[in-house]
Specification:
It contains 9 helices and 8 strands. With about 200 residues, the chain is of the alpha/beta class. It has an 8-stranded parallel β-barrel, surrounded by 6 helices. The chain starts with a helix and ends in a 5-residue tail after the last helix. The relative contact order is 0.16.
């Protein structure tokens, strides 16, 4: 993925900061119905036999799609699996918790979003260490409902920060934006219909 593609995706997030985290096949079409309000899709369902069709569907509607690699059945995150992903499946990028996968995905031209789970202050230290080693394009922080932690992560990096997890209503998403999040990701279709900008 070129630097221009990353910049275009980030511009899109500023205009439409909601990302649909699609965890169930029945939500694939729902996300498409809200595509004018979404900045992208994180795909967390499917397997190697169907994921290419899902990616092509979203891309045909100009909706950026990212595969959460640990959630796609039958897809290896080694060099060969990522090579197949980049050349055959062709998502815009990936979401992963693994530093080594971020590095490999970026070499293959994919936008790399690194997901971090914050459960204590050690989690913040891990983010700082990983950012210097992996150099992802975007950071996702979970859960989203820790405003002070969002501010601290934003202070660690100039990268866009996506807040995800445990979002139940529009006001909670707005709180994330007020605390430095560039975008939010949610698996709740009822949140996908909202306009935030």
């Amino acid at each position: 993925m070129s630097k221009t593609a990353l910049e275009a995706f980030i511009r899109g997030l500023h205009a439409r900061p909601m990302i649909a985290s699609v965890k169930e096949a029945k939500h694939i079409e729902i996300a498409l119905a809200y595509r004018e309000k979404l900045g992208g899709v994180f795909l967390l369902t499917g397997h190697i036999g169907v994921v290419r069709n899902y990616v092509e569907l979203y891309k045909s509607h100009r909706l950026p799609v990212f595969l959460h690699l640990e959630k796609i059945g039958g897809l290896s995150t080694d060099y060969y699996g990522l090579d197949y992903l980049a050349k055959t499946v062709k998502p815009d990028g990936i979401v992963t918790t693994k530093t080594n996968v971020v590095k490999t995905a970026k070499k293959m031209g994919l936008i790399a979003i690194q997901r971090f789970f914050l459960v204590d202050t050690e989690g913040l230290d891990n983010i700082a260490n990983s950012l210097s080693n992996a150099e992802p394009d975007i950071v996702e922080v979970m859960p989203a409902r820790i405003p002070e932690a969002l501010r601290r992560v934003q202070a660690l990096t100039p990268l866009p920060v996506v807040a995800g997890g445990l979002l139940f209503d529009r006001d909670q998403a707005l709180e994330c934006f007020g605390n430095g999040a560039t975008a939010v990701s949610s698996s709740k279709p009822e949140l996908w219909r909202h306009t935030f900008k």
